[in-house]
Amino acid sequence: METTALDHPSPPLAEQRRTAPARRVVRAVAIAACLPYLTLKIAWLSGSTVGIPAGSSLRGSLEDSSFYAVNVLTVAMDLAVVALALALTRPWGRCLPAWLLVLPGWIATGLIAPIVVAFPLQTALSLITGSRSTPPGDPWLDEWVFGVVYTGFGIQGMALGTLFVLYAKDRWGPLLRGRTADLMASPTRPVLRIAAAAAATASLPPAVLHTVWACGGTVGLTASRIAEHTTTTAIVEADSAAFAVLGAVGILLAAFRPGRTRLVVPLALGWTGGAASAAWGGWMLLAGIVAPDDSGEPGTSPLMDLTYAVQMLLGMLVLVAGAYLLAERAAARGATAAQRRG
User: Fold this and answer.
1) DSSP code at position 5
2) E strands, 74-184, where?
3) Which helix (H) or strand (E) holds 222?
4) 8 Å CB contact between 247 and 314
């Protein structure tokens, strides 16, 4: 896909100057929201046990190479959020290839969006019922760690999402306007519809299984996961099921174009649902491999691994189909403009 096909002129200089102060404030908020998480992770990498209570299994993992590697990875991911916030608000960000911004933005959306939805619900439920957010037994982390970290993630998500929407509107606004019924026929439409049907099919196993696990079902779960089940984890499972469905709905609307749905609706649903499915499917699959439970057994079961892998497949199908749809739309608009100039 040609990057230049998705590029559009910047808005007038006067408009950039008018919006720049507000974007600088949002950028500062996004970067500041990364600091608590980065501070905590760097402390752990330095050997500190801050936030890790006595008796936690994490204390014995501080010197473990897998634990160290995961923490280095998460520090790099949070630093990438800082870099992305800068790229979305600085003039040099307009010169970057589209994929260099879209792909990190997609991954960040996938990791943060489920937290933005689930954490407020978990917090509200905890305040109403007075229940703990962690399962009974030896505490894994101090309660305040979850509040600080996930509050920071929520602020990151809202700030970074705002910056990305504004950036996309400036750079690709003409491609995102209109309705699904206005999409031109293309030679790849049958392939897009096949991909949409495949994505919808792939969404069913994760949606069903996560719903079953949210309701307390134990099919395919490890003993440690069953023991950890609380209303908090039930919300996480329901969250995963919902985002899998959203990704499938988004690509189906884009492929079959019913009625006069605004194009931005299926794009937003597909982007968010597909990203969440792929990012958390991949993260949980990785966590199951590198982080065994306290008994030394794998952290996930074969059925759980398969579910996470299917989530990744769903997300990739949605991403690729959406990229081709927008690339064809950009090419059609370019051809029309060339004809008019001719």
Assistant:
1) G
2) none
3) none
4) yes
